[in-house]
Amino acid sequence: MEMNDAMSSTEPTEAQIAVHWKEEQYYKPSPEFVKQANLNDPSVNERFAEKNFPKCFEEYADMLTWYERWHTVLDTSDPPFWKWFVGGKLNASYNCVDRHLAQYRDKAAIIFVPEPEKEPAVSLTYQELFWRVNEFAALLKHFCGLKAGDRVTIHMPMVAELPITMLACARLGVIHSVVFGGFSGEACGLRAADSGSRVLIYMDGYYRGGKMIDHKFSADIAVATAEKEGQKIDKVLVWRRYAGKASAVTPMVKGRDFYVDEVLKDYRGTFVEPVPMDAEAPLFLMYTSGTTGKPKGCQHRTGGYLAYVTGTSKYIEDIHPTDTYWCMADIGWITGHSYIVYGPLANAATSVIYEGVPNFPDAGRPWRIAERLGVNIFHTSPTAIRMLRKVGPDEPAKYNYHFKHMTTVGEPIEPEVWKWYYDVVGKGKAVIVDTWWQTENGGFLCSTKPGIDPMKPGSAGVGMPGIYPIIYDEEGKEVPRGSGRAGNICIRNPWPGIFQTIWGDRERFVRQYYSKYNRDPNSKDWHDWPYFAADGAVLAADGYFRILGRVDDVINVAGHRLGTKELESACLTVPEVAEAAVVPVADEIKGRVPEIYIALKPGQTANRQTVDTVVTTIETMIGKIARPSKVHIVPDMPKTRSGKIMRRVLAAISNTMDTGDITTLANPDVVEQIRITVQGTEKRETKEGPEDLKHFGKEE
Ligand code: WTA
Fold this sequence. Notes:
Bound molecules: 5'-O-[(S)-ethoxy(hydroxy)phosphoryl]adenosine
Strand content: 15-25%
Distance between the termini: 29 Å
Largest sheet: 8 strands, mixed
Mean pLDDT: 94
Radius of gyration: 24 Å
């Protein structure tokens, strides 16, 4: 989830994450909550039991409006490329907008809250959203010549025009690829090239931490980067933060860049018929970091995805059309796609979009927004909760808002932080769902069902309806519940929200997510294809999962996934750098932060300038969110005899943990030298680190 500059200025101190959380007591939802909940009938467990799989998921698909009904719920003929609701036809834009007009035309669909507090919030009714989506779809179709199956890359901040753009694409069957606004132009250009987009959609500027950011600047870099990769961009559409007035100083390129508000004049009141799409037609791509240097485009399908986010928004987020729902994530991440745009709007909710930084101008801002708009469902990340708790622990009590429901997502939440969220933010009245899932998954995989299951601080709850999680050890043996042992959490079965493939890389899709626990590559039986999530987890005796963090070389920084290999490749583009290694370090606010180790080429001497170059290179190639907390220049990397960098040793030093056995290294002496560089000459007492840090780099 979104982390920002104002937040990151909080000085990180020693991490206080307990290694072994003790079993926590249960918290029960209030009778008032249960009474009004969309899902309060425990028969859901029976309805979604394995004997009713996969048919059980028709319950979600039936929440949508289809042009044609599917003939097959789940097609497993080409494992593990599962197909859902085959034969069905629908349109996502129609389901999120048009179908609500009869009943909810005058209700707010989106409320945009600008960061400057003097600018009033802007409400778009479903009727207004309908026209804005249609007009922009007309522009995409007629002005850009886009049609179903084409890809478009969108690099925009948190403004109402972002969901309008996405829904306009979906109306035409155009596959959108939204790149998080905080990523650099270069990162955007690489993704645009990978997806084969010839149109980029931008906004000229936006407010962040009190400053107007010139975002158009990044468009020119994105175009140049894409072209270097062989992908020509013929149009850049630029929304203006203030129509008719430029907010960026970066000039427009004639014949390539167009202000949307100017071109839109030609499409006023133009209706565009939604294109009936196959359930299996891709709806969007979302790039995420993985274990290699190159980000991968997770390809999500129209029917299964929309059904899954609609069902889970209704049952787990407990969204009713009468609710005012605010998810503070960024739409540039999967949480925003599923639980700001598609899920809430398919349920005719009012979805709040906030432009800026949560603690701008002060830590009371979120609670003022909630009070003013009557938000009753609130959704955010542990990083945001930790930060708001640190800078304004008493703020929530000053405001008169009433949440019935709160969500946490993206990282493990410490029980202490959970309790502050519950007691202070929720005022002891709101239920909390701790939802565990991933970009690849479309929607929630584990959570409590808020009107049915008791909550347990620090636990992500049970498998969602129709999701059958399991923990395997390295040999593929099940780790039983209540054993206290950690293992790899997997999902035994397919579900409608799972992504279809990695864009353009079927082989990597199979290798990364299925090969680890596949029992027979020729099997057409889904039971032989457990999905490997690359997270460590423990299963308590009561069936609740506690997620420990990544088991691969992805670092979860403030809920953002960063590939260590991506950061390392960026470092290696600095001419004086010979070797680079990135390790996660525990941080009180952001969960984990990246630290970088650099070894220089012969003849180079360590200096401040190299450190600065490494930092700015990462910021330009990836984005400010990837900025390392520290860069250490070391005489040599600890290496195995075969020359592999032992990242596990570096991670141990950075986290003041025991470095373990280093006698087998080719250069054991360097370890103490590095320790002194990082920790100083005085020997520090090592501590037992959290589970993910203990395992980091073990496979190397
Ligand atoms: C982590 C975000 C603990 C996990 C929706 C996962 C969590 C990665 C939780 C995916 C949670 C997500 N408790 N850890 N409730 N939710 N994670 O793709 O390590 O940005 O693999 O999707 O975040 O991050 P992604």
